[in-house]
Amino acid sequence: MTNDSDTNGRIDRLNPSRRSLLTAMVGTPAVLGLAVGSYEAASRVVSDEDLETALVCSLADGQADFVDNRTSISADPRLLSAHDLSAGQQVRLSRPDDSSEFAVYTIAEERPEAPTDIVRMSDSARCRLDLGSTELQATTDETSCPGPAGDCSVSDEEFDAEISTTIPNPSLSESEAREQGELIERLDENGTDHIFIAPHGGAVQPKTDDQAEHAADLADATCWRTKGWGPDAGAFQRWYVPSMALSPESYPELETIADDDFDVAVDFGGVCDNGIVVAGNATLSLLEDVRDSINDALPSCAEQATLPDDDGLTGDGLLVDDLGEESVFLSQSYATRRAYWKEIATGTAAALSADVEVTESGSCQ
Q: Where on the tree of life does the source sit, at the highest rank (predicted)?
């Protein structure tokens, strides 16, 4: 006959050891290969249907290169395959609990995960999905370089994110994109001699798209540009992808010309420092011609264009380097673009086309 008191006694004696084991497992995540913050995520089971969304988690051990990176993520190859994505491409992530919060990221690493829907990024990268945060808006100003995405409501949280392979919205007009805080791309093809590009136009790096359009119109050349806007001053935070990371596969209009062999490609870009720097992998004589032509178009009181002191903005790696046999990268502060965007664009076009004349914009008096 079973003794109920003895049975209960055995159960009571077993419970402490089970509780101790669970406590030890949670308290020593290294034994399980888990971060404490990812315990809940690791216990989830994901079906194929769940791969429409991702679970945004903190960085894992061995991802030190991501800590100060606001634009890169890692993801499981099976999650990427479900969306026909791979490392090097861009992806749009959005928060299902707030449709106004979305941003573009570069897939920098394919990393096996359990469960397979985990996407990892830095704290500051997560804040790009919280642009409504007052703390973030206070450090971001369209007329200066955006400050770092610091503390925000999701910087130390795990949360769901919807996945989309659509980077520029193909169906919007410019006015609609501006109103909706969206990104569009535009391409005007006109031969393969010269191409002028602005990967960060609109409110991302203001006036750069105007410069590319103006120079291409003057020089009768091809022009590709994006135009992005965001909530308040958040366009840079939402849409910026470093030029060396930008994948033509993620920008359909760009992909159509990515394999064309342009003689010269020119990128109108922004920079946080003052001035105008003319760089690229073009011959020194061409870079000097562009510099001198820009300075001829500027008033004498304006800060003059210069060549870089070192090779910091030259060599392969930038998008513009891949598009042209010779490349020119114009690095310009916002203050310079705001005041002299047209003069700089005109001077650049004149250096590449004999049909464009430069007229000095005036004196300082």
A: Archaea
User: What global pTM score does this model have?
Assistant: 0.83
Lowest-confidence pick of 12-21, 54-63, 104-113, 169-178? 12-21
Classify the C-alpha dihedral 33-37-39-44 as positive or negative.
negative
Instruction: Give yes or no: residues 270 and 331 share one domain.
Output: yes
CA distance 166 to 90: 9
- Specify if 81 maps to a domain: yes
Do 277 and 184 share a structural domain? yes
SS3 sequence of 268-333:
EEECCCCCEEEECCCCHHHHHHHHHHHHHHCCCCCCCEECCCCCCCCCECEHHHHHEEEEEEEEEC
Residue pair 230/201 in contact (Cβ under 8 Å)? The answer is no
> How confident is the model over 190-248, as pLDDT tens digits?
988 999 999 999 999 999 999 999 999 999 999 999 999 987 668 998 999 999 999 99
CB 56 within 8 A of CB 126: yes
- Which residue, 164, 190, 211, sits at the end of a domain? 164
Provide DSSP, 144-169.
SPPPP----TTTT--EEEEEE---S-
Q: What's the domain range around 83?
A: 36-164
- How do the residues of the chain divide into helix, strand and coil, expressed in percent and rounded to 5? 35, 25, 40
